[in-house]
Amino acid sequence: MSEEDIEEYEPTEKSAPHDRDEAGPLDEEEAPVRPYIDLGGLKVVPRKGMQMRLEVEEKTKRVVAATLQLGESAVQLQGFAAPRSEGIWRPVREVLTESLKKQGAKVSEEEGALGPELRAEIPAGEKGKRNVRILGVDGPRWMLQGLITGKAGSDEAEYERMIEVFRATVVVRGQQPMPPRDLLPLKAPTAPETAKQ
Q: Which H/E stretch holds residue 77?
């Protein structure tokens, strides 16, 4: 999803689980002291067997997403700037639904582990299909989006494992002014570091 796609939509009330500030996804100010893999706008907890891939925009060469894979499941993470008092997950869901339907996907909005999420069945190959789940959580001046693929797209136990990975993510919004819906900048990881309190 490009930033332009969601530019025309107005933000609305925030969408987040009631315990977001304790169970995550956390803001940098809320994060406990522990080792993290620093990706700039996001910090992720290293896990045994986890593989990480950075998605790079071909034209600009900037990192636009981080995909974390555990076994047969993966979650792609993207952080977006948001207004202080309003959320952007609802309008983003509307844009994603439209975009997925244009690709021939069957899309439904369901109540997931962290609030409203999208579930989509995307055509793959000649007769195949791919199940994905897209979730988002509004935090203080940011929104974290997760695209869950692989086995977790249809298997509840795997889905719960990916939710744990998503909730362990720390969002580093920074103090610099950013237009709402801009992607938080990501970078190639440095060695795991301890988050500051």
A: strand 73-81
Tell me if residue 87 falls in helix, strand or coil.
Answer: strand
Of 153, 109, 106, 152, give the one whose Cα is nearest residue 15.
109
Is residue 184 within 8 A of residue 40, CB to CB? The reply is yes
User: Quick one: tokens of 38?
Assistant: 């620093």
Q: Return the structure tokens found at 3.
A: 């930033």
Its pTM stands at 0.89
Strands 26-27 and 170-171: parallel
Q: How far is C-alpha 163 from the geometric centre of its chain's CA atoms?
A: 10
Give the torsion sign (CA, 160, 73, 46, 174).
negative
Domain that holds residue 168: 4-194
> Which parts of 98-197 are beta strand (E)?
106-112, 115-124, 128-139, 142-150, 170-171, 193-194
The total number of structural domains in the chain stands at 1
Q: What is the pLDDT of residues 61-101, one digit of tens each?
A: 999 999 999 999 999 999 999 998 899 999 999 999 999 99
Output the domain CATH number for residue 18.
3.40.1000
- Residue 135's nearest CA partner among 150, 121, 120 is 120
Q: What is the dihedral of CA 99, 103, 104, 108, to 10 degrees?
A: -30
Q: What are phi and psi of 91, to 5 degrees?
A: -65, -30
Q: Is the separation of the CB atoms in 12 and 116 below 8 Å?
A: no
